Amino acid sequence: MEKPLITLTTDFGLKDPYTAAMKGVILSICRNADIVDLSHNIEPYSIFNCAKYLSESIPYFPESSVHVIVVDPGVGSQRKPVAVFMHNRYFVCPDNGVLTMLIDRYKNYRAFEITNRKYCMPEISNTFHGRDIFAPAAAHLASGLNIKKLGSELTELFILNIKNPVAGNNGTVTGEIVYIDNFGNCISNICKSMTGKIIKIEINNTVITRIAENYSKLEKGIPGVLAGSSGYLEVVFNMESAHDLLNIKKGDKLVIYTSG
Amino acid sequence: MEKPLITLTTDFGLKDPYTAAMKGVILSICRNADIVDLSHNIEPYSIFNCAKYLSESIPYFPESSVHVIVVDPGVGSQRKPVAVFMHNRYFVCPDNGVLTMLIDRYKNYRAFEITNRKYCMPEISNTFHGRDIFAPAAAHLASGLNIKKLGSELTELFILNIKNPVAGNNGTVTGEIVYIDNFGNCISNICKSMTGKIIKIEINNTVITRIAENYSKLEKGIPGVLAGSSGYLEVVFNMESAHDLLNIKKGDKLVIYTSG
Amino acid sequence: MEKPLITLTTDFGLKDPYTAAMKGVILSICRNADIVDLSHNIEPYSIFNCAKYLSESIPYFPESSVHVIVVDPGVGSQRKPVAVFMHNRYFVCPDNGVLTMLIDRYKNYRAFEITNRKYCMPEISNTFHGRDIFAPAAAHLASGLNIKKLGSELTELFILNIKNPVAGNNGTVTGEIVYIDNFGNCISNICKSMTGKIIKIEINNTVITRIAENYSKLEKGIPGVLAGSSGYLEVVFNMESAHDLLNIKKGDKLVIYTSG
């Protein structure tokens, strides 16, 4: 039998004991689980960043993996703790939109509110459902528990309202910067497949005409645009930070001019 | 048989090769070990922070797990390297107080000074006992070595002197901020169980009257007090940092007023 | 049979989905692999730092481990993706010098350019060979694939040109600071074995005469020199940062005066 595989994605950072407590809970229930850290550095409280992160990593994981996601600013409030079965993978998370982009991709899912106290910690705190609800539920799923045992089925999950790029006349597409990565690459919400041949782009007051295949094709100090590894257009430099050099920020508007 | 489980807690940070060297040593001795990173971001040299971190995470781990802890400002000095059996778990660490709060909780332990060179690296450096003593000793324990083989038994371990809150007249309890977490929540040393019904708290020159159940119950910009996931009272905001907004620092005095 | 062991070393940082995508790819091909994070915080684009990191950690890992290294500023350019068998371990990385110090140590290796698309992702992006080439190749090696199947053998790998210390008259050795660690210790390229008995050292305009065995032997505020855990001389304080207190930077010149 395959060994149980549980991944963790949180905004807990790395210095606090919160992630370790979750790992302990998981291993106490499912001693053979392999726990794989995805990220604990999602921007605190950013459900959008988390949703985007998951959409670019989860699709690479094998079937039957169990994904625990704790970016949970509403912990203890009315938002529901849920377990979701989608594309033959399991997700355990708050129902706050973190699965938005994966649902957009896979469409079909079955979702269950986690209410069965038998699969939670004996005491449930008001502030740490990662430890008290999500970790134990995930460990039970990884141990083979039928997801229906966790609670009643929900008809739908909360979905984030995501701004899409807009196609204008004359072959323009207007979008915005939605993420800045570790290298300072400024990633937009415009997918390469949405545009024709790109002639130039405009961002803030800069016009960029260099359309590159990869980072190292760019001369030092010259900004370029390329399609990143998930297909989204990004403003980049070769071994320098577009975020720093062009002072680009999340939310900045980007216009793509194409040949049609 | 259960697979060997070894956790790592250090103040090494993430960029240096120190943690990787320890992982290599462990896997060379105990190839089947599952190594679980707890944190490598304990505040450098902070034995107190490490002790608190362990007290809020280790209790969730299963029996027979082996916990390696390397926050070790006195490496190479007279402080002893030790292996400890407590609450059916193993701990391998410097004898410098990192187990203080766990010992306070579990009371009974057996401790052994690690002196048997057979279970250390062939050469022991003066500056990196994590790699040369703690990692190999832990890997041998995880492989089934009897802890008594590591060296002679010690009658007691070094314990940190920890300041406790003080109960005053009129139902006040005075404590201090001992930790600020990744979200800027300011955590005190006053456990909820030490107080009656809280009426208000005072910290620096701020009076806080909002006693909340969870973060999301607080209106934006209004500070509150709540019992965190380990039972300690913390000064918090909803999705904002109390550390930043109220300029609260570690060591700041906190007075709780209760109804008796 | 031993379980497959794959380590990851990158400059991706911790917030982006790049590392998680690689983990997913690996586990989809080799479901039983144990993935061990070494570091994702190598200084961005720093091939030298990466080479040094590997030389101080990889030697501790067991035979047959598979090491994936992605510090890859030239991704998508002419630099080759390679798989290397050396000292009974496997390395999967760009041919850009990251193995320089390991090759200097182990001398013999066999290297293969990864060209067989059968062992890559179906589509190979121009910007993320970690996910599309290195992760799948490593997972296939960990699953038992013969390394020769990945592509044609290369006669040599790219090697970094590394500056060595210079021995002068009168028993001096002149080197430089090549790395500053998490604690602010300033590590030089002068190995203890290159010098005789040290009398004093000079760095910037500071003369240091305190030669210490370990950090805790130094009085507060007094800088010292000691041989770190990999044998290189470092400028240090006891529980303080030499980097901060003496304003030492990477590249600063260091002169060791010995008794001959």
Oligomeric state of the chains present here: homotrimer
Major sheet of chain A: 8 strands, antiparallel
Greatest chain-chain interface? A-C, 41 and 34 residues
Q: Rough shape of chain A?
A: elongated
Structural class of chain A: alpha+beta
Question: Can you give the mean pLDDT of chain A?
Answer: 96
The Cα radius of gyration of chain A reads 21 Å
How would you sum up this structure in a few lines?
With 260 residues, chain A is of the alpha+beta class.
Care to describe what's here?
The structure is a homotrimer of 260-residue chains. With 260 residues, the first copy, chain A, is of the alpha+beta class. Chain A is built from five helices and 15 strands. Chains in contact: A-B, A-C, B-C. At the A-C interface, strand 1, strand 2 and helix 2 of A face helix 1 and strand 2 of C.
Topology:
The structure is a homotrimer of 260-residue chains.
Chain A: E1 5-10, H1 18-29, E2 34-39, H2 47-55, E3 66-70, E4 81-86, E5 89-94, H3 100-106, E6 110-113, H4 129-142, E7 153-154, E8 166-167, E9 172-180, E10 186-191, E11 198-203, E12 206-208, E13 224-227, E14 232-236, H5 242-245, E15 253-258
Parallel strand pairs in A: 1-2, 1-3, 3-5
Antiparallel strand pairs in A: 4-5, 4-6, 6-7, 8-9, 9-10, 9-15, 10-14, 11-12, 11-15, 13-14
Helix pairs in contact in A: 1-4, 2-3
Keywords, separated by commas or semicolons:
homotrimer, 260 residues, alpha+beta, eight-stranded antiparallel β-sheet, seven-stranded mixed β-sheet
